[in-house]
Design brief:
globular; three-stranded antiparallel β-sheet; 17 helices; four-stranded antiparallel β-sheet; alpha+beta; 14% strand
């Protein structure tokens, strides 16, 4: 299904028609790779407290407002009911609504799909470049090999495929959906369209105070800046309007860009994954997540994977001058039957079977309890050392994967000079390699410290 786009030159007219109040600001191109942005049309003193943008409540896309919309839009309500619980989440409701708007736009001149509203035109202002990784082509995705983005991207694409299949199966029997989407003579609805509305949501949704996850037109044109470079904040006023206000103490001059923060604590991978870029000011990956597997020769592998509730992986993050880590799953990986771990398949009162985990005869509900129990054991230093060695090995494996790519895709390094997205994936590689190299060194020091606590006979238990 093809889309039509409008230049941001027309956005001010759209804002006037829909009662979006602006006080001395406007949207235009940033003349760099950030696309459009909000800019000051005049100077603002540091004492200015008046909102510079006011968006009426009915324009804010939230779970609540969309179900109100559905009361006057028969087809929107029909789809909401067809997909079940998915439409009762903010993300699900918003994706479905956006999909209807681009369908309405594509069907102009033929059968109208849904009730036209301000968003039917506003979606045309959303850029078509496909800068989020889920919209990258195969060559661009290959440039993420060896980074933590690779696993995150693969997982997200599988999740989107499941969502799209559910959406299609749930609406396949609805006559107008068949006509407009599934049996269309021309271009119907395809998986890329689903990825497009997902990218609209992920790159533009705000956690709006008093509302929760929502999309706010015009304010969502503001670009990201972190720390002291953040110029404005988004809030909800007493009348339920979404407002953009200048941060206390900030002075704006004419033509200065009005920026918000997408999250100062977000890591480089999350920024690239969710927004399609890594800020120039980022000099560290900050954090990353690596998957962690139970070894194939572990006889309890299937049981461990089945009972795990925490993410099967490892989170590395900066902490002071070193790298710290979090992983409940690693404790499950590094203990076995000989240590006291056991699994049993029990039958419930309704005849179902349920897997139960125990440690030295005592039932454990979650693997997150394991570390606490292991700390009380006489062999805690042994278990701790096993965990650190396991994590260090996983970090080494990822570093080797990064190194391998350097030799196998030399052309990517030529493209990284400025072409998107290769310049971004190259930066991610460099930042993650730096973080993991420090983590490896910190793990090595920890292994040395733990070995010094163990006597030779105990160390033999690890081999």
């Amino acid at each position: 299904m093809r889309r039509e786009y409008l230049s941001s030159d027309y956005l001010e007219k759209w804002a006037d028609l829909n009662n979006v109040q602006r006080h001395g600001v406007n949207v235009h191109n940033t003349d760099d790779d950030k696309g459009d942005g909000i800019f000051a049309g005049r100077s603002y003193p540091s004492s200015s407290a008046k909102p510079i943008v006011i968006v009426p409540p009915h324009l804010v896309l939230s779970l609540e407002t969309l179900w109100i919309y559905a009361k006057s839009d028969r087809r929107l309500e029909e789809i909401f009911e067809a997909v079940g619980d998915y439409s009762r989440t903010a993300r699900g409701a918003i994706l479905i609504f956006l999909l209807l708007q681009i369908t309405q736009d594509a069907s102009a001149g033929s059968d109208r799909v849904t009730v036209s509203n301000p968003w039917t035109e506003y979606v045309r202002f959303m850029p078509p470049e496909g800068r989020l990784p889920t919209l990258w082509d195969e060559d661009a995705r290959a440039s993420a090999v060896g980074t933590s983005l690779q696993a995150a991207l693969n997982s997200k694409l599988k999740s989107l495929e499941r969502e799209f299949a559910h959406f299609r199966n749930s609406t396949a029997s609805i006559a107008w959906c068949q006509t407009c989407w599934w049996n269309a003579r021309e271009e119907g609805l395809c998986f890329r369209n689903w990825k497009e509305v997902d990218s609209m949501y992920r790159s533009r949704a705000l956690d709006l105070p008093g509302t929760g996850h929502a999309m706010v037109p015009y304010i969502d044109m503001a670009n990201h800046a972190s720390g002291d470079d953040t110029v404005a904040l988004y809030e909800t006023d007493a009348d339920g309007n979404a407002v953009l206000v200048i941060r206390e103490g900030k002075i704006l001059k004419t033509d200065d860009e009005v920026t918000i923060t997408y999250g100062d604590d977000k890591g480089a991978c999350e920024m690239l994954f969710s927004y399609g870029f890594i800020a120039n000011s980022m000099t560290s990956a900050r954090e990353l997540f690596l998957n962690l597997d139970v070894p194939d020769d572990d006889p309890l592998k299937l049981a461990k994977n089945s009972i795990a509730r925490s993410p099967p992986g490892l989170k590395l993050f900066e902490s002071g001058g070193s790298v710290d880590w979090e992983s409940d799953f690693v404790w499950l990986v590094c203990i076995n039957e000989e240590d006291g771990l056991d699994f049993r398949l029990l039958q419930t009162v309704d005849g179902e079977r349920e897997l139960k985990m125990s440690w030295k005869g005592e039932e454990i509900s979650l693997e997150s309890n394991l570390q606490t129990l292991l700390k009380e054991e006489q062999l805690w230093d042994v278990f701790h050392l096993r965990a650190i060695v396991t994590l260090q090995s996983r970090v080494e494996q990822q570093l080797l994967a990064l190194e391998k790519v350097k030799a196998s895709i030399p052309s990517m390094y030529e493209l990284a000079e400025g072409e998107y997205p290769y310049c971004q994936t190259m930066k991610l590689r460099q930042l993650e390699e730096k973080l993991m190299s420090q983590a490896y060194e910190d793990f090595e020091n920890k292994v040395t410290d733990l070995n010094q606590l163990l006597d030779p006979g105990t160390i033999l238990m690890l081999t």
